[in-house]
Amino acid sequence: xxSSNTLQVLMxxxxxxxxxxxxxxxxxxxxxxxxxxxxxxxxxxxxxxPSSSASSxxxxxxxxxxxxxxxIAAQSANSLEELRKALEGFEGCSLKHTAINLVFxxxxxxxxxMLIGEAPGADEDRQGxxxxxxxxxxxxxxxxxxxxxxxxxxxxxxxxxxxPGNRQPTTQETEACLPFVKRHxxxxxxxxxxxxxxxxxxxxxxxxxxIMRSRGLWKDYRSEAGKKIxxxxxxxxxxxxxxxxxxxxxxxxxxxxxxxxxxxxxxxxDGA
Length: 272
Ligand code: URA
Fold this sequence. Notes:
Layout: H1 4-16, H2 34-40, H3 52-55, H4 63-75, H5 80-88, H6 95-98, E1 106-107, E2 113-117, H7 122-127, H8 134-144, E3 153-157, H9 171-188, E4 192-196, H10 198-205, H11 211-214, E5 219-222, E6 228-234, H12 237-242, H13 247-263
Parallel strand pairs: 2-3, 2-4, 4-6
Antiparallel strand pairs: 1-3, 5-6
Helix pairs in contact: 4-9
This protein binds uracil.
Uracil (URA) is lined by residues 117-121, 124, 130-131, 133, 135-136, 157, 197, 238.
């Protein structure tokens, strides 16, 4: 019998390592599941006819191979629906297996403005929609003050599956998902890109500067299809929730964005 003290320690340990949600009412012993058993077996030594265990033995895939597979899958999509299907069928990012839902995108796919965040959190994972949790609500509120709503912008993330415990995506995860984001940009084909937070800015623009230095500066982004798109990075709303002192810079960036959008005759919502 486990004492309540021990239980409490175990619960906080689980929380610390990122287990903050119940995804199944009963525990599963993954080691006993057939697929796992077969995958971990060495291939049969017989060279004539591969046994069923040998045929399901998967050799490790290099990062280069993964990235190539992602590029081929992403490039084969000619519509957002096809891109969603390509992501659903993509096995190169293990986050897929811990997430509840694929978080693909939201808003107006014909919009001239596209926003790209980092990765879904718990609320987004549950609802299958980007930026619907606390930080998303803050972002929506701030954007609506400059006339941008999900009727005139489109929004997605670099990573479409929630990293467990909301940890930062790894370089490998970002590399595996990047071809899909790049294709996403070409299929939406916006005139303006707003990169929300440092992870998104780094993934799409590269460079050495962190978000503290790179935010608020308009640059040119050349899409895979060759379109020149104006791009700007802004603070992530989750950062603003932790550091409200940075809201002034965030507002200055939004004012700058509004000015450029008006100059380019982007239709903003009334009241802004
Ligand atoms: N943070 C992100 O970067 N994206 C979301 O969808 C939610 C929170």
